[in-house]
Amino acid sequence: MIYFEKIILFLCLFLGVSFADTGSTYRYKIGKHWQEFISFERPDLLISAGCKKADAEFNCLSYSALTKAKVMKSWPAGGANPGALICKNLQGSIVRGKNERREENSFCKFSDKSMVSSAALYVFALKNAKHE
Amino acid sequence: MRIRVFLLMAICASGLHHSEALASSSLDNCTYGRMDDPGGSMAEVPVLDQGDVGLCYAYAAAQMMDAWRFTHIPKNIAADPKRKQEYLSRHTSALRAGVGYAANQNFRECENSSTRDSLPFEGGLVCETLENIKASGSCSAESVEAFVDDAIQRQLYPDAIFESIGESDFLSDSSRRQKLSSVFPRPPTWNLRVQLCNMNNEQVGDQEEHCAKSGNIINSKSLMLDFVNVFDKTDLSLGLGEFKQKLDEGPCKSVEKFGGPLESSSPPECKERYVTPKNKIAFKEKLEKYLRVKENQPLQINFCSAILSTEEEHRQKNEPIPPNNIWISQSSMDKNCGYHAVLLIGQKRVGNSCKFLIRNSWGLDCGGAGDPSNCDHGDMWVDADTLLNNTGSIGQYSGSK
Could you tell me which residues come within 8 angstroms of residue B109 by beta carbon, excluding any fewer than 6 positions away? Predict the structure, then answer.
């Protein structure tokens, strides 16, 4: 019985990861315009929908910036969003987006107008640190 | 004031230096409750993202104010659905709250800076910010945002200017300043003065040299701050006081200031209590009774945000994990502590432990920090004992109705 439960648990976890909510689209209003984002890598990491090209590959400055993201040496004063601070070091510009419920997420905008969520920068910065 | 803040931090640090992990109190009290559930005090207060501006204290204060306002709507407004909806759609501007607090305190030059380019109002005290809002009324965040949108529409906003003339809006600070100088008859004010006081920063020497040369350092950090440049096309030395004045004459003036507690005959007060090794267990028991009631007001809590990271994150950042995971014992000002202000808004029992729910200001995705399973639509579940072991103080905004 316990063995059977473990199999069920494994299947649940496997399916949960396999069909995680990546590729979903989200809309945030930035300034006066609504911008479309898609989740990638993890359900909570967002990047401009335009970054995903017809061949399903990502190609934009936001995406390439992920590989350059570096963790901050220290925690900042005032508890700023850690990913937003990484953005600044990548020559990006922080913008805030609001969804229909006025809930916010901050994004790092690059010169090709592509954006990636601050959270994604932080998560990738940690990944990059691991490989350094 | 500076001394006071320093003492406050020192008290927090030394008081907890010899603390031990909290003994588990009875889990019976850790009954589920969260204030952002329908009908709760935080139900109409959305998750926000402060981005790269270190205004956690102002975000916490603004959200506490809104929770109070929304649970104390004046009767004449509550009786009219349209007016009530309008009342609920206006939120307190954290930016104005932070600027107002810092300008009034006039001490933001050298405190709390752990990065070389912190703005003069980064890092502050929640209760004092709340009292400041109480005294002057809230400024509508929506109004501030509308002003920004309008500035963009009229191409007054610097980034919009760059776009309109075919330039990248991602020039370096010096390039931006130069470009704006050519657009405006006289250069607009770019800066809130940069803090130069963190002598631990290896780059502070360069910064000082730069400062000496330019007199002012450009520090346009984010959209919310950039817009202030639109206001002032003549003055190159905008200080916090002037910044506050510009806000009050601009977006904060365009709608009638909403007072919240000002409208009350018996306004609430913000009371802060320090968490010490001696009172932690009693604190936890009180909190568990308090947090299960969704109608209660959120509590502000100052703690080490390092606890929001997983062990793996600490390893990847080369942060030494202190004994018993008590970060604050090293020093509340320690760069590894990451002193941070958030709100406590709920709790739940998980297995044999109690988890508290915090309202952070890192957006819906919790800034990507910690285990994603602990991120609950922007709010974060943290182990109650770990949180209290790393807490300096807890504040409550309350009073008779």
Answer: B120, B193, B195, B197
